[in-house]
Write a structure and sequence with these properties.
The structure holds 2 protein chains of 2 kinds. In chain A, 0% of the residues lie in helices and 45% in strands. By secondary structure, chain A is mainly beta. In chain A, β4 (33-37) and β5 (44-47) form a beta hairpin. Chain A is globular. Chain B has strands at 3-7, 10-12, 18-25, 33-39, 45-51, 57-59, 67-72, 77-82, 91-105, 108-118, 122-126. In chain B, β5 and β6 form a beta hairpin. Chain B is globular. The chains are: A mainly beta, B mainly beta.
């Protein structure tokens, strides 16, 4: 399968921890990367590889993977973390990329 | 500064053609994997095409045979030629650099890929 499945909507209380998941067969072979997108802006890479954060991404963002599921965790969610989050990986051919449907995170 | 700037979007009638450009600065397009990704209004991200540093190209099934990705190394620019446009091609089109890394765990090598540089996007509207 070349699909990546995400929960459409997730909410978290301010300061609490939230986990956003991404499921797909290709995740057994490829690491997911995670992107944050705020309205009217381009996506921003937040996590890739085995839990690597690009420069400038707060350390409250972390990633993990097990079997066919990749997860993005935000520990101590802030109001500015409210955004859409997308996972990305490759399909079984290794040459096509695929994005999850996205998760809209609401910080209450 | 590492940067990507897309251009070439606009309003086009169904069946028409359009060429998008993505000008890179701070790195060489020819030395990297370069992608086009689109986003339909109010919807999620959809991968469109990739060009490898070696020149190989791949396309999403939704655009295969209609879109062509290419690059001009002298201009350090990536292109997306879009033909036979349809209403469902209406979207914001982003170009993105894809980088990769590797590591070893328990004696096994692994690789990972990620799109680390994105442009701001250019809007394509297909409508009569």
């Amino acid at each position: 399968s070349s699909e990546l499945t995400q929960d459409p909507v997730v909410s978290v209380a301010l300061g609490q921890t939230v986990r956003i998941t991404c499921q797909g067969d290709s995740l057994r072979s490829y690491y997911a990367s995670w992107y944050q997108q705020k309205p009217g802006q381009a996506p921003v890479l937040v996590i890739y590889g085995r839990n690597i954060r690009p420069s400038g991404i707060p350390d409250r963002f972390s990633g993990s993977s097990s079997g066919n599921t990749a997860s993005l965790a935000i520990t101590g969610a802030q109001a500015e973390d409210e955004a859409d989050y997308y996972c990305n990986s490759r399909d079984s051919s290794g040459n096509h990329r695929v994005f999850g449907g996205g998760t809209r995170l609401t910080v209450l | 500064e590492v940067q990507l700037v897309e251009s070439g979007g606009g309003l086009i009638q169904p069946g028409g053609s359009l060429r998008l450009s993505c000008a890179a600065s701070g790195f060489a397009v020819s030395s990297n994997y370069m992608n086009w990704v689109r986003q339909t209004p109010g919807k999620g991200l959809e991968w469109v095409s990739v060009m490898y540093s070696g020149g190989s190209t791949f396309y999403a099934d939704s655009v295969k045979g209609r879109f062509t990705i290419s690059r001009d190394n002298s201009k350090n620019t990536l292109y997306l030629q879009m033909n036979s446009l349809r209403a469902e091609d209406t979207a914001v089109y982003y170009c993105a650099r894809e980088s990769y890394g590797s590591g070893t765990s328990l004696g096994t090598n692994y690789y990972y890929y990620y799109m680390d540089v994105w442009g701001k996007g250019t809007t394509v509207t297909v409508s009569s």
